């Protein structure tokens, strides 16, 4: 079995994103997000919630202002995944193809 971990805040297309993944993936699907985010209970297999750590201020590289959020959601989601392979992705990206077929399992 493989796992897909979506991280972040699901948007308006999240139901479509999950349905697209379910078309080719019959394993575990996890959402790693924040404690105040509402998600239909039966949409994913697990919802991992944490307190939003907020953005990093006073940083010289503006592309890193959400780095703490990204790292926390990624770490918590992947830590809960039970699959042999884990696809870590954002909650706003749709995947329509069986991506696990492109990656060999590491021993």
Could you describe the 3D structure shown?
Helices cover 23% and strands 21% of the residues. The protein has helices at 14-24, 67-80; strands at 3-7, 28-34, 46-50, 86-90. A four-stranded parallel beta sheet has the order 3-2-1-4, with helices on one face. The protein is globular and about 40 Å long.
Short description:
The chain has 107 residues and is of the alpha/beta class. The protein is 23% helix and 21% strand. It has helices spanning 14-24, 67-80; strands at residues 3-7, 28-34, 46-50, 86-90.
Question: Which characteristics define this entry?
Answer:
107 residues, alpha/beta, four-stranded parallel beta sheet
Helix % is 10-25%
Strand proportion, as a percent range, falls in 15-25%
- Integer average pLDDT: 91
Number of helices: 2
Order of helices and strands: EHEEHE
Please give the order of strands in the largest beta sheet: 3-2-1-4
Sheet of most strands: 4 strands, parallel
Which consecutive residue ranges, at least 5 long each, have pLDDT under 50?
A: none
Radius of gyration: 14 Å
Q: How many strands? A: 4
Helix/strand-derived category reads alpha/beta
Distance between the termini: 15 Å
Shape annotation: globular
């Amino acid at each position: 079995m493989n796992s897909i971990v979506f991280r972040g805040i699901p948007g308006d297309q999240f139901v479509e994103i999950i349905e697209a993944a379910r078309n080719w993936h019959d394993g575990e699907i996890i959402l790693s997000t924040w404690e105040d985010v509402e998600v239909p209970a039966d949409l994913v297999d697990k919802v991992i919630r944490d307190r939003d750590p907020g953005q990093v201020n006073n940083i010289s590289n503006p592309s890193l202002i959400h780095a703490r959020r990204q790292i926390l959601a990624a770490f918590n989601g992947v830590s809960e995944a039970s699959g042999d392979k884990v696809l870590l992705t954002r909650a706003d990206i749709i995947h329509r193809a069986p991506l696990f077929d492109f990656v060999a399992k590491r021993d």
